[in-house]
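Hi V.,

Quick status before I head out on leave. The structure for the redesign project is tokenized and pasted below; the design run finished overnight.
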């Protein structure tokens, strides 16, 4: 049924739970797992005084966090014998980047956590999960 499953991660506890579900589904269907983490390359307005240092600090921290999320999900996949590939997407708007990547890479399902690390959790769904549900052209499984 599914040959390729997309799993976006931000390294949060919810994403780690969703990784187990994504890996389980990939194993059951003999699918490959496409693991992505999205970094917004321009998260704030440039401030002339100290702006370059702030941006460099942000980008380094974002890359480290993305790698941590990818490494964690990849370890779960490898432990289960599920083939996977990992990608850092550098795009503004994580939901748009996730749905576009799913389409471009031929993923037939997106499995993601309901809430990530950003701000206060929404009552029902996190803002990225909610936007992915709206934009996706393929089925989306949201793990609470």
């Amino acid at each position: 049924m599914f040959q390729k499953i997309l799993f976006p991660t931000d390294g949060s506890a919810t994403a780690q739970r969703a990784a187990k579900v994504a890996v389980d589904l990939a194993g059951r269907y003999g699918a490959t797992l496409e693991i992505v983490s999205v970094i917004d390359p321009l998260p704030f307005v440039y401030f002339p005084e100290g702006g370059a240092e702030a941006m460099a600090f942000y980008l380094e921290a974002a890359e480290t966090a993305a790698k941590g999320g990818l490494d964690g999900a990849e370890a779960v996949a490898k432990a289960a014998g599920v083939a996977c590939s990992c990608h850092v997407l550098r795009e503004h708007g994580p939901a748009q980047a996730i749905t576009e990547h799913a389409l471009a890479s031929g993923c037939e399902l997106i499995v993601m956590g309901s809430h990530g690390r950003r701000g206060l959790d929404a009552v029902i769904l996190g803002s990225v999960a909610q936007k992915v549900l709206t934009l996706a052209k393929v089925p989306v499984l949201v793990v609470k």
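Above is the designed sequence. The helical segments are 13-29, 51-79, 94-104, 127-135.

G. will cover questions while I'm gone.

Best,
W.
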